[in-house]
Write a structure and sequence with these properties.
The structure holds two protein chains of two kinds. Chain A is of the alpha/beta class. In chain A, helix 17 (531-543) links the parallel strand 19 and strand 20. In chain A, helix 1 (33-46) packs across helix 7, helix 7 runs antiparallel to helix 8 (204-223) and helix 11 packs parallel to helix 12 (323-339). Chain B folds into two domains: 3-234 and 270-307, 3-Layer(aba) Sandwich (Rossmann fold); 235-269, no CATH class. Chain B contains eleven helices and twelve strands. Chain B has an eight-stranded mixed beta sheet, sandwiched between helices. The chains are: A alpha/beta, B alpha/beta. Strand 10 (241-247) of chain A pairs antiparallel with strand 12 (336-338) of chain B. The structure holds iron/sulfur cluster (SF4).
Chain lengths: 620, 340
């Protein structure tokens, strides 16, 4: 940490340069914490920091105000170094009310900065949060750097001559908190001022109120004696290029649009609203000028069946959902598989079973993706490991779907769907081209709907093509002709063919790479959204001298061709998952490898320390 | 422009090479025959025609047509048809379903397909029984019906396909009977020509599990007195001697005899184009044996079509914003540069 006494705007306060910080804004779900967090994120990203975020909000839209159930939080980790996770321990916590303090305090590091809105700690607020005594008046918070701010009062004061009623005025409090954090971490207010203009331009008084509150918060930081110093974080050394912030869901939406463009197709989305996948529907419905057609179906089944119909018709068809919706789509997914039509089925996993924890993250749909259909029904599965990775995952999934004429399941999860990180913007002309050929009327003499190419893929003949009229369906079909066929040997043959086709994808995907030593004591094998925590934990352990490597699977069905050999180079394999051991089950069953598991289903991502501790325990 | 005229197709051109596997004597044969007769008259090439079905006896239909087709999963045909039609508006898309497929397991999809009014033709073969699963009662089986799964008689209050269709804002709603081949052909043709979702219920005899369910409507002796043919703008007259009619008594229909002070002008006149569906609904409630059951077009009005509207939005968006450009999109909003 280096220090300088030159303040950001001429004040005499000290400025410490730090590598990075983890900050959480917590308040009532009506307090605008997600908005504040997003602004703080964009501002930090534009300052050149690497960032990782973790929004955490309740399932209820507005749980009763001030209650523990209604607390909404947004965690941001920014750094001048490469980072992969939103951080384990908080360096600073902003608690807008007693409930937010109660539910979040445990994550704050000792001596961490704790900013509280004192005005909310009245009798009612305290009792809603089940505090018998006001924690601001006991010794409960002694171990923290407590900064008490009369945020409500100061906000009202800042906007008092604008003639807003107090309800509207109080809604600006989140901007006060933002302003204070911006000062604390040496952030410019420009991005947020631009945002205010764009978002509230139609309501000049509200825009002005937010503007004033933001600046009031910043000025408060500048002048209050409670905060003797602020921080500076250098820009991170990211790969040169132009960046923007991306959440996982936005990256998936843009990824499928890019895949459509790379393959010369127009995109069709059949979807039914479900948390946490709906944002993909929202995002894609904006892009009709790209030829994107979104269909909000009457239910999950119609969502997937409409997509299959669109695929039959030659469109790039996708359906988006979460676990409960995927359960409903199961029968239709089986149909898509036996029809051998390309289709992307995107599952933004959430806590299960049943309705489970809709707004919390989990990785517990892997076995559903693998086995959740009747009959022998292999479907390729590919997973995204970070928000930005969702973009590439979407393109790769579509490449596989059309090359092998098969539905493909993409697994994302609530954590990467809502989390954000910098995304280096690619040039569209550099994206991989996806070749698709459809048979034409000239092929009529030789056309058979279930003939196969070198990838065992059948031809994608589109209705409207003269001479290629054919019927497909869910009944078992005769090899080559596709006619309905109940012959026992044919059923065996077709079952084998379909399985082989999917298994052969292993020859068409990259070999699994590994981060760390080529062989050693321990391999951490992860998949999906645990990427950041696994990477950081393994690097940390290696820095402490342990012989540990990390492989993170994108391809879950089929597995990369070298996976067995790769695992064999380590004495032990540890599989951390936010489920009770689903990848471990597959690895054990497929390779007879006695992998150890680190499993948790608490609706939260892994802390780096949880994985690091387990690595150390296994190697002790 | 080419001077070549379209090849003249015949019914045989629409037959696929597959063996038909319905029970001999099944009403499905007659519907298939009429379909093959009607399609060549529409001027739509075979490759532009698609049949999509669910599961059940009727749903084997696509296999027998030399067009594109999909035999999908139980009850879900409207979903497949919707996605196909949205992305391929120039295809002529037919949905073939049954009373179990369309009204039981697929009731939800049927309801929403009808209200969205995509340009689809939905033909529901109503045999009032589950045929393919060998004879359980269906949602259209009458109360008291003794079947394998209702040995003491069905206690399931049946529903009536056309009332449902009209309740779902159906813009084209019609009924015909498998044995009445000329009328059936007319209804299929009108359904095909109507733009928007055309819903046609066909009374279909399952001679294996529910033989004679519609004998009152098909037998030479009774059909004239137990059915009434709807014609737009014409009074509702029926009977072997065409001496009976339907008159409105307040809000209720009643059967009256012509003569004896009742003239044609006193009768209910059919208006398939009425903007309000009340008349069509009233007709859909007329049941044998209290009333003659209407066949014909109950309702034929022009409503906005989902497929047209969605594709119009796509066009409007392109006109207003220009064809989408991914590079531009990727660089829109807040971005920052990192230099080496
Ligand atoms: S069971 Fe009935 S409906 Fe099915 S094919 Fe036989 S006769 Fe026709």
């Amino acid at each position: 940490m280096s220090t300088t006494t030159e303040g950001t705007s001429g004040s005499a306060k000290q400025v410490f340069t730090i590598e990075g910080a983890t900050v959480r804004l917590a308040g009532d779900s009506g307090d605008g914490m997600q908005l504040a967090g997003t602004q703080f994120t964009n501002t930090s990203a534009l300052a050149g920091n690497d960032i990782a975020t973790f929004p955490d909000y309740p399932a209820e839209i507005r749980a009763p105000r001030g209650t523990l159930a209604g607390v909404s939080g947004f965690q941001l980790h920014f750094s001048s170094d490469d980072i992969f996770t939103p951080g384990d321990k908080l360096n600073a916590l902003v608690a807008m009310n007693p409930a937010a303090l109660k539910t979040n305090l445990a994550d704050l590091e000792p001596n961490g900065i704790l900013i509280v809105n004192v005005d909310a700690f009245d009798k009612k607020g305290l009792s809603l949060a089940h505090y018998d005594e006001n924690p601001l008046e006991t010794d409960e918070l002694d171990g923290y750097n407590l900064i008490k701010v009369n945020m409500t009062t100061l906000t009202r004061e800042a906007v008092k001559d604008l003639g807003l009623n107090t309800r509207v005025a109080d809604r600006c409090r989140n901007f006060f908190a933002m302003g204070l954090l911006y000062w604390l971490y040496g952030r410019s207010t420009d991005v947020t001022l631009r945002f205010i203009d764009a978002k509230f331009g139609a309501k000049p008084d509200v825009a002005e109120a937010n503007r004033r509150t933001l600046l009031a918060g910043r000025n408060y930081g500048e002048t209050t004696e409670a905060l003797p110093s602020s921080y500076h974080i250098d820009a991170a050394k990211l790969t040169p290029g132009t960046y923007r912030n991306m959440t996982g869901n936005q990256a998936l939406a843009w990824g499928v649009m890019a895949a459509a463009e790379c393959s010369g197709k127009e995109l069709f989305l059949g979807s039914y609203p479900i948390t946490p996948a709906s944002d993909i529907l929202h995002e894609l419905s904006k892009f009709k000028n790209f030829g994107v057609r979104t269909f909000q179906a009457e239910d999950e089944i119609a969502a997937v069946t409409s997509a299959i119909g669109a695929s039959f018709g030659g469109a790039m068809a996708i359906t988006t959902s979460s676990g409960p919706g995927i359960a409903l789509k199961g029968e239709a997914m089986g149909l898509a598989m036996i029809l051998e039509l390309p289709l992307l089925i995107i599952n933004i996993q959430r806590g299960g079973p049943s309705t489970g924890l809709p707004t919390k993250t989990e990785q517990s749909d892997l076995l559903q993706a693998m086995f959740g259909r009747n009959g022998e029904c292999p479907i390729p599965i590919i997973s995204a490991s970070s928000p930005a990775d969702c973009f590439d995952t979407a393109i790769e999934a579509w490449r596989i779907a059309v090359r092998f004429m098969t539905p493909v399941i993409i697994l994302s999860d609530g954590y990467i769907a809502n989390g954000a990180e910098p995304w280096r913007i690619p040039d569209v002309s550099d994206l991989p081209k996806i070749e698709i050929t459809h048979p034409t009327g000239d092929d009529a003499d030789t056309f058979h709907p279930y003939s196969r190419d070198e990838h065992l893929a059948r031809p994608w003949a589109i209705p409207g093509t003269p001479g290629l009229m054919h019927r497909i369906g869910g009944l078992e079909k005769q090899d080559i002709t596709g006619d309905v066929c109940y012959d026992p040997d044919n059923h065996q043959h077709m079952t084998d063919l379909r399985a082989k086709k999917v298994a052969n994808i292993a020859n068409d995907i990259p070999l699994q790479d590994v981060n760390g030593p080529e062989k050693g004591d321990l391999l951490v094998l992860g998949w999906g959204g645990t990427f950041g925590a696994c990477t950081t934990a393994v690097e940390r352990c290696r820095a402490e001298g342990l012989s540990v490597a990390h492989a993170h699977l994108r391809y879950l069905n089929p597995f990369p061709a070298n996976l067995a050999e790769l695992m064999g180079r380590y004495n032990k394999v540890l599989i951390p998952e936010l489920n009770m051991g689903q990848l471990r089950f597959l690895i054990r069953a497929t390779f007879l490898v006695d992998a150890a598991g680190l499993n948790k289903v608490k609706g939260k991502p892994f802390a780096v320390s949880e994985i690091a501790d387990e690595i150390k325990r296994l190697l002790a | 422009m080419s001077t070549e005229s379209l090849p003249i197709l015949t019914s045989a051109d629409f037959a696929s090479d597959q063996d038909i596997r319905w029970c001999p004597g099944c009403g499905d044969y007659s519907i298939l025959a009429q379909m093959k007769k009607v399609l060549p008259t529409l001027g739509i090439p075979r490759e532009k025609t698609v049949f999509i079905s669910g599961i059940g006896c009727s749903s084997r239909f696509p296999y027998y047509m030399n067009t594109y087709g999909m035999h999908s999963i139980h009850g879900r045909a409207p979903g497949f048809a919707t996605g196909l039609k949205i992305t391929n508006p120039d295809l002529s898309v037919w949905v073939i379903t049954g009373d179990g497929d369309g009204l039981s397991i697929g009731g939800n999809h049927l309801m929403h397909a009808i209200r969205r009014n995509l340009d689809l033709n939905i033909i529901l073969f109503n045999n009032r029984i589950y045929g393919l699963t060998k004879g359980q009662y269906s949602p259209t089986s009458p109360l008291g019906k003794i079947t394998k799964s209702s040995p003491m008689g069905s206690i399931d209050n049946p529903l009536h396909p056309l009332s449902i269709a009209i309740g779902c804002e159906g813009a084209f709603v019609a009924r015909s009977i498998d044995m009445n081949i000329k009328h059936l052909g007319q209804m299929l043709k009108r359904a095909a020509e109507h733009r928007g979702t055309s819903f046609v219920e066909v009374y279909q005899n399952c001679n294996v599990f529910n033989d004679g369910a519609y004998s009152w409507a098909t037998s030479r002796e009774t059909k004239a007195d137990s059915t009434i043919v709807l014609e737009h703008g014409k009074p509702l007259i029926f009977g072997k001697d065409r001496n009976k009619g339907i008159r409105l008594n307040g809000m209720e229909p009643e059967v009256v005899e012509l003569g004896k002070g009742v003239t044609e002008d006193d009768l209910l006149f059919h208006d398939e184009k009425s903007p309000e569906p009340s008349l069509a609904y009233l007709l859909s409630r007329m049941r044998h044996p209290e009333f003659p059951e209407p066949i014909g077009v109950f309702r034929a009005v022009d409503h906005p079509r989902y497929d047209d509207e969605l594709n119009r939005q796509v066009e409007t968006a392109r006109e207003k914003q220009g064809q989408g450009d991914l590079n531009k999109l990727f660089h829109s909003g807040e971005t920052w540069s990192v230099s080496s």
